[in-house]
Write a structure and sequence with these properties.
By secondary structure, the chain is mainly alpha-helical. The chain contains five helices and two strands, in the order H-H-E-H-E-H-H. The chain has a two-stranded antiparallel ribbon.
């Protein structure tokens, strides 16, 4: 059974998948930083200092704080600003993956393109040869 597991784990697809998951996690961290540290502050500056991370709706009368972290400690809140940030993260990741897959597919089609057909001269010579055979 151990030998069978070793054979399964060392197959190319499993190793490729593991590498993909690790790279995906690292890519996710980069996108999170891009959104939180670069894009959202720029959006905040353009919109007059809006900070999406602190946008929430109080669902409990006990919540009196204006910061999301404190409000969560006080009671139930609907943190739609955090949700907007996560949606933006997702859209950036989806767009980047779309571009990457599109590029990979383009490379694959270029590699697997059929060789060009014979030139007109070669076609003419082939026709002459065939006519001479007859």
């Amino acid at each position: 059974m151990l030998e069978e597991f070793k054979k399964f784990a060392m197959r190319g697809n499993v190793v490729d998948l593991a590498v993909g998951v690790i790279i995906g996690a690292a890519f996710g961290a980069i996108v999170n930083s891009l959104v939180a540290d670069i894009i959202m502050p720029i959006i905040g500056a353009v919109t007059g200092g809006l900070d999406f991370s602190n946008y929430f709706i109080r669902l409990s009368s006990k919540v009196t704080s204006d910061s999301l972290a404190e409000a969560k400690k006080q009671g139930a809140v609907l943190a739609y600003g955090s949700f907007l940030t996560i949606v933006l993260n997702f859209l950036i990741v989806a767009w980047a993956l779309f571009i990457a897959i599109k590029g990979i597919n383009k490379l694959k089609t270029e590699e697997s393109a059929p060789p060009p057909g014979p030139s007109k001269e070669v076609q003419l010579l082939t026709e002459i040869r065939d006519l001479l055979k007859k």
